[in-house]
Each structure stands twice: as structure tokens, then as C-alpha cells.
Amino acid sequence: MLYSEVKERENRFITALKIVFPFFLLIFIFFSLFKIFNQSIENFFLLIILIPIYVYYIFYLIYHGFRTTLIDSTTKAFTFKKIISIIEELGAKENYTIVLLHVDNIDDINERYGASNSDLLLKLFIQRLNDFLKKYYFYNTPIGRCWSGNFIFPIKCYPKELTHLLTIFSKELKNIGINDIEVKMDFSLIEADYDTNVKNIIEKLYILLEESKKSDFVFPNIKPDIFEQIVDEALKNDKIFFKYQPSMEIQSGEIKIVEVLTRISTKEHGFLSKSQIERIVNYTGYEKVFDEKIFSLLLDEISPLMDKNILFSVDISPVSLRNNSFKLYLTTLFHDKKIDPSRFILEISEKNSYEDMSRFREIIGDYQKSGFKIALNNFGGNNCGFEYIKYLPIDILKFDMEFTKKIEDPKYAQILEMYMQFARNLKIKTMLKFADKEALFSKMKAFNPDYIQGFYISKPKTIGEINEIW
User: Fold this and answer.
1) Domain shared by 232 and 367, yes or no
2) Gap between the Cα atoms of 247 and 423, Å rounded
3) Domain annotation covers residue 451
């Protein structure tokens, strides 16, 4: 039995006592009054009045008891409200760690096996977790459900040891599954004394969970409330810097596209790369403001290159792209600076597809009418790229790094060739990235992409170095 179920049983027992105790008290009052005092009609009516009060009291306790259940009806774990109160009671206790678990493929399970099987699996998942923790002598661990396949619990254990144990548990789930269903689990953890505000702890756990999936960077010492300060400082003081990654057009052998790589400079954390910036900006909701600042500074910096025969590819948040005021800002900015939008590629990537695809198609069409080209980045990776290419007018496909890493794998090579032919049929340009050596460049060239990018062709350069190429 889960610790949460034990506490729920205790809670219901206490409620039952609250109901029964007044009943015996009422009998005692009846008995005492009739024994001690005269059996007058006044005393009789007084006692009769107590009966409906008691009945109301019973119904109130029953109604209140149903509304104040401690456990989630599906998984029998603690409700989110209850687990938060448990963590708050812990305070900043040393040696305690807060863990966030995420069943990564719960949406897929729900779609494949149905909602009822999905709910049953989550219930069995919590039972399996509880048994696993008991196996390692962690008894009475309070596990709470946040929502869907997300669970959180505090535990008295050092993070390093707990990481090892949860990794074992994750591998067991992946190999054995639950009811013959494969279960993929991710987790993040943080020491309980990280912050006295539980909300900050949970926000940090979700950020760490997302970062662990991308694996190239984690903000180990930055609290959530510091993120906004980082972005604010960069925006106010123009601490945004650019480097430029040339790409070769295979047919001509010339540099035709330059990808703009954005970084920000911070006092305490040094330079943060494009991918790190993106996560901070997304977290703080500064996508539109940040993209506006990028274009404002970028157009001034690259103005000496406007007479060169090259295109500039700029990574932009789809959130900004879909914002009408951003589109007005961008077109006005290009008009005021007398720069041709056809020299620019707006590069987008999104994990989950936008629900209103017809509106998104119309928005992209408006940008293309203004002259901008649209590139789909990380195509073929773990994102909605293929969904977008079905519905949106895309000009360039930039393939995911995985195709470069596994270019010698026959299966990946066959898929890549299929995608290439697919793009050619749709008259969409293609680009392969991360060609760091001549041998790899030759293998990539055999697939006949329109462009190849990588250190073999050129490392990222400053604006001065780019100007020297021509």
C-alpha cells in the first residue's frame, strides 16, 4: 500500500470519529438531561433541536470529506496540493532531495492503448516506484501527482546516490515495461534547501528536466528568478553579440548562406550560446522582445555586407513569427533601414506543432510575400518538422545533426536519400550541417544537397572576418 493511501485511510478514520463521537455525546446529553432535570416540554424541544443540527453536521463532514481527499483518484498518489504542503512542511531540511519524475511517452501510450489503459499504467507505475524505493529502505515516501505523467516527491537521500538509483529504475522500466507496455521515464532532482519557495523549486525541476533532454547545458547555479535579470541586462545594455557560420552552395562551390549565431554576455556566467539563450528567453516569455533586439542590432552590424551576394539565416522563435506586432516591427525596420528582406532567411524549429495550421500558413505566406525565405531547422529530428513541411510553404530544409552523425548507417542513409528526393520534388532547397572533415564532407556531398555547412568549410567568424572573404 502506498504511503498516500495509508494517510488517506487515517484521514477517513478521523472523519469517521468526528461523525461518531458527537453521536455518543448526543446520547449522553439526552440521558443526563432526562435523568438530572425534569422532563419538561422545554427540555424535550431543546433536545429535539440538537438532532437536525447533528444531521447537518454529519452531511457537512461527509461532503467536506469527499472534497478534501488527500489522494489522486487515478494513481492513488497524493494530490498536487497535498504534496506541496508536505514539501513546505519539510522546509529547507538538509539531506533531503526533491525529485520530479516524468513518464516521457505517456501521450503515445494514451494514443496507442486508450485513456483507461493509460490511467492504469500510471497507477501501476507509482506502485512500482514505491516498491523500488522500499527495496532500498526508503519507506513511507510521499509521492504526489502534478498532472498527467508528472510526479514529485521528497526523499531523504543525497542527490548523487539518488541519481544512480533512479537511473536503475528508469532502465528497468524501459527493459521490462509495465503490462508489456514500454515506459520511458525522465527525472530531475534538486536539494530541498535550494529555495524556501516551493514554487521556485518546482519551476527549477522542470527547467532541469528540459535541459537534461537536450544534455548540452544545465543551469546548475541559476535560480529561476535570476533568468529574467539575465535577459533584462542583455536587452538594456545591448550585450548581444553575433558570429557568422558560412555555408557552401554545392553547385557553385561558393559561400552563399551565412548563418547568424547569437550569444549574450553576462557578468557572472560569461557568454551563453544560442541554444542556452533560447531556453532562458522561452522561460521568461521574452521571445518577441528578444528577437526584435536581435534584428535591430544585427542589421546595423551587417550593413557593410549588403552589397555582397549572400543570404543571412537568422534563427527566430515561432512565437515571435506568429505575433502580428512583431511582423509589423520587422517590416518597418527593414523599410527604414532600406534593406531588402529577400536577403534574409527566417529559420524556425518547434517541438510540438502549432494547432491552427491554416493561420500559420497564412502568416508564413505574408513573410514570403515581403521577400523573406523560411527555413525549417533540425528537420527529421525529434520535433514537428515533418508535420510542418506537409502544411507550410518552406523554402529550405536544414537536416538534423543525427543524419550527419549516422550518415554511414545504411538505414539513415536510405531515409536521408528519401527525404532529399522528397524535397527536390517539392522544389525545396536542402542543407546538411556539421561537416567537420573532408571525408565527411565527401559523404554528405554524395547525397547532392544544395548546401553544406560545417567547420571543414569554415568555422564561425566575426563580422570583420566575414567581410574579408569577399
Assistant:
1) yes
2) 19
3) yes
